[in-house]
Amino acid sequence: MKRLLQIVGLIIVGLIILLIVVIGFVFAQSNAKFNKIWEVDVASLDIVIDDDTLAEGERLFVTRGCGDCHSENGAGTLFIDDPALGQIPAPNLTSGEGGVGQFYTTEDYIRAIQHGIRPDGTSLMIMPSEDWQQMRAEELSPLLAYLLNLEPVDNVLPDRQPGPIGRALVVFGELPLAAELIDHDTAGLIEVEYGASVEFGEYIARNCSGCHGADFSGSVLPPENIETPNITSHEDGIGTWSLEEFIPAMQTGVTPDGRQLSDAMPWRGFGQMTPEELEGLYLYLQTTEPVAE
Questions:
Q1: How many other CB atoms sit within 10 Å of the CB of residue 18?
Q2: Residue 234, domain extent
């Protein structure tokens, strides 16, 4: 019996040592990722400030999903607050107390939006910059004008503090940092003709892939494990929807069969897209590979 207890004790000690080694590895590797400096060239843009430009910038802020994380007034939110995952804020973008707008330049905003990188050169976390690594100047310019002129809001959020599970997800590639997902050599401005076309719809659909998956067949979003629906051209998706059904669904949040879309779907923002944007999005989604549920 004494020998058995010794063996059990050695196993327990060995497991504790292994756990300490794994924890140390995760913390060391995650810190290396968090502290890595990314050096990139950012696009150069002339920013025009007038009423029409600011109005368009505000519309883009809403319809491109910025307000879903940073709040409608840009004051930011505590995006994740979980002991295991950590505290991950979506920063206050205004120039109020606690806001990055106090010191962010145009270049800083472009670096964050298109490259997922903070002014100090380190990567942002849970910022969908990969969706906007290539943008039309006609969108990026008014969006920047709006961000630079946000009404100051005092909202001091905690610094980013990844938890143990959050760190492990980063280390093992399950939660890549924003800068890791981008081809920084090709990030920048692109030319896509505005209009109700498949090409322009593909550009708009980058709003959708982050939640509905790269193939638009649906996904599961942490930390609440929200299931997003299939929006491919399959009949299990929106393949049977007509344009006349799609646009009202986006604008009202009610599907053709009368179902109310979940509040997790930011239809109120997307519904403010122009008819041309919504038609282009519809046309593109109808060309996607049909995936059955």
A1: 10
A2: 198-285
Is residue 24 situated within a structural domain? no
The average confidence (pLDDT) of the chain is 94
Q: Read off the pLDDT of each residue in 209-223 and give the average, rounded to a whole number.
A: 87
Q: Do 191 and 136 meet the contact criterion of CB atoms below 8 Å apart?
A: yes
Cβ neighbors of 197 (< 8 A, separation 6 or more) are: 280, 283
Domain end call among 160, 190, 220 = 190
- pLDDT of res. 12: 85
Which of 157, 174, 190 terminates a domain? The answer is 190
Domain contains 210:
yes
Are 176 and 117 members of one domain?
Answer: yes
Under the banding of pLDDT at 50, 70 and 90, the label for residue 223 is: low
Residue 95 and residue 163 in one domain:
yes
Predicted confidence at residue 10, as pLDDT, reads: 77
% of the chain beyond a pLDDT of 90: 85
Q: How far apart are CA 129 and CA 180, in angstroms?
A: 10
- Whether 32 maps to a domain, the answer reads no
The mean pLDDT of 97-103, rounded to a whole number, is 98
